[in-house]
Amino acid sequence: MLAALVLAGCTSPRDGEASAIGTVTPSGSSSQRPAELSLAGVDPCALFTEAQLDQLKVNSEPRTDPEGRDGPTCSLDVDLTAPYYSFYVEAITDADLQQWVDGERENNSMITERTDVEGFPALTHYADGSSPSDCETLVGVAKGQILRTQLYPTDPSEFTQARMCDLAAQAATLAVQTLQATR
C-alpha cells in the first residue's frame, strides 16, 4: 500500500487519508494545474491511442456511452486473459474535485487521497474496507471539469487495492497525456 501511495504522489497515510503533495483549494482548482484542458465535447474513448490501449492491455473495441453516470463515458475491457477487468473513463463537466473531499460527493465510507496526474490536481478514491472492489482516479483538468478513470475487476480477489489504484492512475495519466497533446 505504501508503494502505491508513493507511486500516486502521496506520502504516508494519515488516518485513512494520504498527505498531499499537490493540494486542492476550496474552489477545487489548484495553482499547480499546468493548463485548462476542457472536456466539453470530448469523447473519452478518443483519449487513448492504439499504443496506449495496448499498454493498458485493452483487447476489445472501446465503447462510448454518451450519457454515462455524470457525462460521456468510455468502457475499455481486458477480457481475453485473467485477471479480467474494465476501465470506465468519464468526462465530467459540472464538478470540482473539492466536491469529493468535503462537498456533495463526499462519502465517509470512501478513502480519498490527494495526488496529481501529469501536474494536474487529482484524487484517488476507493472503498474503505478489507475487500477491494474498485478504484478511481479523478483529475481536475479544468475549472469545474473532472476526468474520471475507474477500474472494475471481474474478480476483485485477483487484485490488491493498491494494484487497482495503480491501474486507474495509469489510465488517467495516459488519457491526460492525449488530452494535452490535442489541446
Kindly summarize this structure in a few lines.
This protein has 183 residues and is α+β, with helices and mostly antiparallel strands.
Looking at how many chains there are and whether they match, the oligomeric state comes to: single chain
Give me the count of strands: 9
> How many DSSP H or I helices?
4
Overall pLDDT level: 84
Cα shape: globular
Order of helices and strands: HEEHEEEHEEEEH
Organism: Prauserella flavalba
InterPro entries: DUF3558
Region (Disordered): 14-36
Biased composition (Polar residues): 22-33
Structure notes:
There is one protein chain. The chain has helices at residues 2-7, 50-55, 98-102, 161-182; strands at residues 13-14, 17-18, 63-65, 73-78, 85-92, 110-117, 120-127, 135-142, 145-153. The protein is of the alpha+beta class. It has one domain. The strands form two sheets. A seven-stranded antiparallel sheet has the order 3-4-5-9-8-7-6, covered by helices on one side. β8 and β9 form a beta hairpin. The longest helix has 22 residues, at 161-182. The chain is globular. The model is unreliable at 1-31 (pLDDT under 50).
